[in-house]
Amino acid sequence: MRYVALGDLVADCYYRNIGYEKELVKIDGGSSRFNVIANLASRGCKTAVISGCGTDLAGKIALHSLMKLNVDTSFVMRKREAKTRCYHLTVEGDKHVSTRTCPICGSKTWYEPIVSTEYCRKWTSPNDILILDGLKPENIPIITTFPNEKVLDIGRTKRLENLSNQDILNILQNKNIEILQLNETVEKYLMQRFNIKKDDLSALFKLLGAKFMIVTRGKEGADFVIENHIIHKSLIYCKTEIDDTGAGDAFFSMFIQKYYENDKKVTRPWVDSTFFLANKLTANVVSHLGARGHLYDGYYPEHIDNCICKRD
């Protein structure tokens, strides 16, 4: 068994506001599903990515950031003529703004996908646990047609807005989704969409069809739902917050790992012990800049006269 993330690699570019200008201060691999993989790999789990990237600087960094954690990158398609997708995050304390356009030169940095669904299908093994984030178009055929067990984090409502209620149910119900993680914004949105009474997590859980559901609530902790049982946990560990990017991904990774190590059995003692570890991990994550700052130092550019878009 291995944990596998599918789709194009992404680089995260971090900026700080210096007066009226933005300064590029760090470049690293990014995207939620690959952040989960990075966390799992850092704890010795067997991981792989079936992916693609360019041979540009962003692609080199996104690829190397996984290789240094011993993620299997044998199935990463590299295209010399392709550009690697980039997010640009301006971080100020506990707030950050993410864009797909470079704030320095204004270039578009989100490109057409390099790898196809069929490429991913070719290299996916039946026992792979698929790590997925969101109901973006490239994820939907993977959720609905791949027979593998899957774990899914829906962290934004934007993609849901383009789907009908029946579309959402057709995608999620009975598709081997073992763990479904939502944040409180997505939870509230779905309850309104499906006319579910406020705070009736059991009804939402039954509707969406996952075997185990997590609802993260930031500094208020998290709720865990299995069958008709709801467990609420409050945060124990807190640290000075520098950047909360990637905290939810790290949290999710701990529950994924422990879920499979415990043969997919969810009990109150198991939730208690796993939450303790996940909370301790996320407290460490938010005390660093970047989603993977707690795993390694990252890449701090020096003497870059222009933005990453202008470099090979």
**Segments where pLDDT lies below 50 for 5+ residues?**
none
CATH architecture: 3-Layer(aba) Sandwich
Number of structural domains: 1
CATH class, please?
Answer: Alpha Beta
Widest beta sheet: strand line-up:
5-4-1-8-9-10-11-12-13
Classification by helices and strands? alpha/beta
Key phrases:
globular; single chain; UDP-N-acetylmuramoyl-L-alanine:D-glutamate ligase; alpha/beta; four-stranded mixed beta sheet; 13 strands; nine-stranded mixed beta sheet; 312 residues
Provide a concise account of the structure shown:
By secondary structure, this protein is an alpha/beta fold. It has helices at 32-42, 57-67, 117-123, 140-145, 165-172, 184-193, 201-208, 247-261, 268-285, and strands spanning 3-6, 10-18, 21-30, 47-54, 72-79, 85-92, 95-99, 129-133, 150-154, 177-183, 212-216, 222-226, 229-233. It is 30% helix and 27% strand.
Blueprint of the fold:
Layout: E1 3-6, E2 10-18, E3 21-30, H1 32-42, E4 47-54, H2 57-67, E5 72-79, E6 85-92, E7 95-99, H3 117-123, E8 129-133, H4 140-145, E9 150-154, H5 165-172, E10 177-183, H6 184-193, H7 201-208, E11 212-216, E12 222-226, E13 229-233, H8 247-261, H9 268-285
Parallel strand pairs: 1-4, 1-8, 2-6, 4-5, 8-9, 9-10, 10-11
Antiparallel strand pairs: 2-3, 6-7, 11-12, 12-13
